[in-house]
Write a structure and sequence with these properties.
Shape of chain B: elongated
Structural class of chain C: alpha/beta
Helix content of chain C: 10-25%
Structural class of chain B: mainly alpha
Distance between the termini of chain B: 18 Å
Oligomer: heterotrimer
Number of helices of chain B: 11
Strand content of chain B: under 5%
Largest sheet of chain C: 7 strands, mixed
Strand content of chain C: 15-25%
Distance between the termini of chain C: 12 Å
Strand order of the largest sheet of chain C: 5-4-25-24-23-6-7
Chains: A alpha+beta, B mainly alpha, C alpha/beta
CATH class of chain B: Mainly Alpha
Radius of gyration of chain C: 27 Å
CATH architecture of chain B: Up-down Bundle
Shape of chain C: globular
Number of helices of chain C: 26
Largest sheet of chain B: none
Radius of gyration of chain B: 22 Å
Order of helices and strands of chain B: HHHHHHHEHHHH
Helix content of chain B: 55-70%
Number of strands of chain B: 1
Bound molecules: ligand MGD, iron/sulfur cluster, molybdenum atom
Chain lengths: 243, 325, 966
Amino acid sequence: MTQLALVIDLNVCVGCHACVTSCKQWNTSGPAGYMSDDNPYDKDPTGTFFNRVQSFEVGEYPHTETVHFPKSCLHCEDPPCVPVCPTGASYKRPQDGIVLVDYDKCIGCKYCSWACPYGVREVDEHLKVMKKCTLCVDRIYDTALPEAERKPACVMACPTSARLFGDVHDPDSEVSVAIRENGGYQLMPEWGTKPANHYLPRRKTRIQIHDDELLRADNPLKKEGRKPRVVIDEHTLDDVTSW
Amino acid sequence: MHPAFSVIFLTTLSGVGQGLFLALFTGQSYAALGLVRVNDSPTFYTVGSFIALLFLGAGLAASFFHLGRPERGWRAASQWRTSWLSREVIVLPAFMAVVFVFGLLHYMGWDPNIIGADNPLQGQLSLFVGMLGALICLALFVCTGMIYACIRFLQEWHSSLTVVNYLLLGTASGFTLATAYAALYAPNLLTLFGVWAAIITFAGLISRSASLIRNARIKYKSTLQTAIGVRHATIAQSSQGLMGGSFNTREFFHGASQLMFKSIKWIFLVLVFPVPLALLWAGMNLHAPALLLAAFVVQYLGLIAERWFFFAQANHPQNLYYQTI
Amino acid sequence: MSSANPLHDPIHATTSGRVETKNTTCYMCACRCGIRVTLRDGEVRYIQGNPDHPLNKGVICAKGASGIMKQYSPARLTKPLMRKPNAARGDNEFVEISWDEAFAVLEERLANIRATEPRKFALFTGRDQMQALTGLFAKQFGTPNYAAHGGFCSVNMAAGMIYTIGGSFWEFGGPDLDRAKLFVMIGTAEDHHSNPLKMAISKFKRQGGKFISVNPVRTGYSAIADEWIPIKPGTDGALFLALIHEIIDTGLYDREFLVRYTNAAELLNMNEADHEFGMFVRAEVPEEEGCFDPQNKLWWDRNSDRPVVANRSAELDPYLLGEYTLDDQTKVKPSFQLLLERVAQYTPEWAENITGIPAATIRRLAHEMGITARDEKIELPIAWTDVWGREHETVTGNPVAFHAMRGLAAHSNGFHTIRAMSILMSLLGTIDRPGGFRHKAPFPRPIPPCAKTPNDPRAVKPNTPLDGMPLGWPADPDDLFVDDQGGPVRIDKAFSWEYPLSVHGMMHNVITNAWRGDPYKIDTLLIFMANMAWNSTMNTVEVRNMLNDRDEHGDYKIPFLVVCDAFQSEMVAYADLVLPDTTYLERHDVMSMLDRPISEFEGPVDSVRIPVVPPTGECKPFQEVLIELGSRLKLPAFTSKDGSRKFRDYPDFVVNYETEPGSGIGFLAGWRGRGGEKFMKGEPNPNQWEMYEKNNCVFQYELPRSFQYMRNWNQGYLQWAQQHRLTRYAEPINIHIYSEVLQKFRMSAQGKHDGKQPPEHLRERIETFFDPLPFYFEPLEAQLTDKQRYPLNAITQRPMAMYHSWDSQNAWLRQIHAHNYLHVNPKTAAAAGIEDGDWMWVESQWGKVRCMARHSQAVEPGTVWTWNAIGKAAGAWNLAPRANESQYGFLLNHVISDELPPRNNGEHLSNSDPVTGQAGWYDVRVRIYKADADDSHFTLPQFDPIEPVPGERKRPKWLAWFAGKR
Ligand SMILES: Nc1nc2c(c(=O)[nH]1)N[C@H]1C(S)=C(S)[C@@H](COP(=O)(O)OP(=O)(O)OC[C@H]3O[C@@H](n4cnc5c(=O)[nH]c(N)nc54)[C@H](O)[C@@H]3O)O[C@H]1N2
Ligand SMILES: Nc1nc2c(c(=O)[nH]1)N[C@H]1C(S)=C(S)[C@@H](COP(=O)(O)OP(=O)(O)OC[C@H]3O[C@@H](n4cnc5c(=O)[nH]c(N)nc54)[C@H](O)[C@@H]3O)O[C@H]1N2
Ligand code: SF4
Ligand code: SF4
Ligand code: SF4
Ligand code: SF4
Ligand code: SF4
Ligand SMILES: [Mo]
């Protein structure tokens, strides 16, 4: 069984929001209709987005990590948002595990959003239906697109390629390898929703320096007659031994 | 959660309707069993059912305001296998239909004995329909309660107390209304309703207090650490990626001040329980229907506050992601 | 209101409409990524990165992906406008006029100025990329008063590096993260190479390199650094000097590189009494004429223990250190010895006190840099020949890469800081080598590059093109553009004794100087693509008053103000005449080799924009405006012999214009020659645009591998560059560890120079700051501030999702940054009693701003910061007057001054680097305190809300963008 998903590498995400707006522009003219924006030029502009990038500060100065954290529907394997939906508008596709909302059936009761612990569903305030990330289902199978572009818009946009896309059930896929090898994890595992999307944690590189690397035979200072100077007026064994 | 008035009214109004129906049915049952003096006015039950229907209908109407696409509301009946909301959508109209039939039977005075004429129970058909109604009514309470109780990560709601509260508070408000109603049109039922109203209100006080105590002690399973998967004691959000608000900030936050939040709790605790109890007591003792009506109105207003608080108190784990603009 | 075609399963969905895709170049920022635009029924449906573009290889950023909201923004200007006769500047009240009228007004006014006093016309341009054309226009017009935004942007970066290594970060070079093992990023938030840098950092990290960020603030790229080194603003010079100290002290420098490729071993005259003191000693070889370093300096050879001509082709082995005496008794020292002496005082312990970085950390950094450079050497099997004829079998690299931007540049001590950094990079041997810094064509250039401004006010003559370039690279005091008294010729005082190496001009001085009439009054100021009434000006409130100020006759002090903008910015409100520009999706543009191309390390790249949608309303590309004006004014470059118009339009100009008749050099380097068979140089090709169009709008030439490295000294490359007219000389470009150019200025201040001398009152300033070796001094403003009272540094950052002031009219982007906060370390905030979210004041000696506080652990406690240019004036950009931007958002510029406190003699000095004139944006010192509880909750200062102008679309209450027919 296939389970398509995004794997987001927090190790390289710089929080640029490219995934946010490219998702918006792709989807607003998409087959499901516009994604509305309210007060676009007024106080408190607000609109429907499928994907948001948040930022967190971890630790205290000066040991601070700034974590940029993109979040869209995680396409849970056991999605609590689906069974609660009274109309069947929310469903999980058996063939690829994508969780979708059928905008023709949705009555905009918002119940599914209550049942999602991740805060990734958004009601479109004008179309009055529930919306969420579709994993760009209208791109990934679209044979009219060049093969290399049959990927989610956010994945194509991401300048740091922090967003990987693929089948997390296929152990050989890029995403499965990344999860396995880089400590990929799921959000709020305590709810047993089994999110298909995974996150890769920060990984640190350090440089190890050994003292002897600072004193090498080819130290160029020697050429200038500047060997590391030895102090002669301090005590030495010469002063105290008598054999 | 953001308390939506559509849902507040849906649940409280329908609760009144349900409770009122249960009261009528109780009245009729007691009468049939001869525990109270028979009330021979079919109008009482007819009008009572009609009032219950009015409340239920108002609740139903309120629910439509909750829908983005009310014209497609009918679709909501399709997922009864998995969705408590869908079940409620089926059960509420079914219940209304039964109440309607119940009222109609009384109105037409058509109440054949179906178990047998020699049975001491009179008017068996309406009793039977009433029994059915009572069952569906309980089912409706369960559905309504379960809509909230089944969401496991809304920990304030995820408890059988939620269902019990819906049941008791709805029933209490219905009985209180029934008491006032009886004081005007069926004095013989006054004490029955009044006493039950008091008992149920009191039970409601116990169960609601239990849930308040429980909720005050909740240890939340989700934390910022599990939300973003970073295990560090100090994490603070510095931006949620949007500044003018979003569905996620509007739907899941009550937005009220801490003071208002606390006040509303005390308001409902006062308005739903002690004041109606006192008014019931006074109204019954003084035979003052106005006081009884006041008991209902106060209790109902209290329930609006209670329901507001019920929603506002629920802390959705999604809020962890929406802490800082 | 229902969705277009709501469908159950989007896979089976069909959306109708005529779909086309077109390639062009993004201009949501100056990075200039290739984009592919999908149109549906003629409306923009999707903008994606062009996968076939060398710069961004298919990726895009938040801004680029929001181009739709820019294109269809209600803030767009669509008609030429003239200020209403009775309205004051700033009122934003205009009447529509026709282009004919607009041209007539401009033609009459400009023709008159040109015929009388051309310097009274000033043309200054902001974040544009068409300096090739605007510069040409100014030169042809004959005014010296032209510059783009570089002077207030990052000229320190350009000058500091170019005067040291012949190339620079910014658009001219960068870190080779493909091969680097250690990457040190200093004072960079977002930068121009926006997407490519993100791509490169991510690849670098995934390859396991170590990424260090030196920055008072940890946002954006710094967030993913392996190590964050918080530093006190303005103190990086101290850090670099201490690193240099430690690297020399431990012998971690690349001796071979210093000897061969820099002037480190070259001998300096140390006889203080000597006229030549501090200059390199030269052999008797006659000095060649030309703008390059003659190879006639001396080394002290180890083998012969004698001075020898520093001949890099011979097997000589000079000393880097020591003191020697020439036969004529001249005492000499290699310049490296002077560097060593200079940094002796700059110990890590000394730097710790200044920078706030522990000495041990500084030492460790030096060791990490030095050891990585030395022990992780890269050897590429690429044979190349150096300019002295030595053959090398391999190209070697020391994989330590640096990148820095305005965190260094935007301080008044930035020039020396950046020289110190360049020297550090050179000590590590990382210049134009794999894994280090690498140049991008047309760099490297001679130190300094050849272009010069005139050096005499008589170069400005009526009805005559300027005799020289409006901007250039002074090599010695005689190159300054000053009058006989040593006074400035330019309105911005660039290239004067006040800021001698202000190679990008000083746009930030223009309004103040023009208003004051210092050095003279001007008539017409034409501002293109710069928001000088708001975010690109310091001291914003006063500048707005100056723009609106009148003299005793009631005439405006700046008589005529023309603004060419695409949106209703704060600046537009002050215009007398508004010229509505097109957007980047509506016009032809070139990213020219004559300006700032988008070259890659591997070779030159330039690119174009080709319209994907027609102009909106009556918008006209500014390029067309200039061509039209140039033709009307009969400027020689735009006019045929018979006086008729030479170019039909801008595309025609781009194809046919040559820098000199028959030079074969034009705006575009690709597909030159009749049939497009040549590049860089060749006759005009009538089909050049089509060829660019077929090629993703980009021309890329990949140099042979052996020409891709060591280009300062790479014979093959230098000859190639010479043949292709990138440079005039194929001479080596040795690194200036010691800057003789600076020493020449110092000598003139000491009266030891025969030519131009600084006016008395500036002698000391020149002598101090034209130190041939880098030194540390506290930023000028801080020196003049009561730091007890104003203990904190205030700085800004670029947000990745916003470009300067442009994007508040962008409905999607403004949701991400609707307003800004002042970010304060919780400890600092607690000391001031300021809670997270509180209203507070940030106050400098210049003014104060009320804003909201945001606690942040990611900022050094002595620093407060905010996002740049998010705050807006009420009603500007066609935003509702109550919009977040103007009510909660604030502009830090109100507390930054464009001038230092006046001197005793009443003289005004710009708040700028004394060497380059770079604006000292990040020098301001502030204090913070809580706002009174009863204060209303909106930002201050506030400005009277302005109304939209004629031609702007009404702003909709809500949006449902859906491209094409429903
Ligand atoms: N998205 C986006 N991209 C842009 C722009 C934009 O507006 N938006 N603007 C473009 C323009 S015009 C320019 S000039 C470039 C500028 O690109 P950057 O130089 O990256 O831009 P700044 O935001 O000025 O970043 C300066 C950084 O230096 C830090 N800093 C300040 N003072 C010091 C200091 O003394 N020492 C150190 N080490 N760090 C310091 C600040 O904290 C900040 O992180 O960006 C370009 N790219
Ligand atoms: N406090 C503080 N201030 C700063 C800085 C800082 O770091 N801190 N950074 C400084 C720097 S480095 C820079 S470069 C400046 C940038 O400052 P500017 O160049 O003045 O500012 P921009 O906001 O880029 O606005 C330029 C104008 O260009 C207009 N525009 C956009 N697109 C087009 C177009 O296609 N055609 C035309 N004609 N106009 C267009 C916009 O509407 C806007 O009015 O800001 C400087 N100001
Ligand atoms: S993330 Fe939320 S909306 Fe998406 S599948 Fe899981 S529960 Fe459903
Ligand atoms: S909002 Fe739509 S998708 Fe969500 S539960 Fe209701 S009907 Fe289902
Ligand atoms: S997969 Fe598609 S819909 Fe989902 S966040 Fe990415 S771009 Fe948006
Ligand atoms: S586009 Fe990539 S780097 Fe940018 S915020 Fe999204 S995931 Fe992070
Ligand atoms: S980095 Fe600049 S040029 Fe590139 S896509 Fe983003 S806005 Fe456009
Ligand atoms: Mo800039």
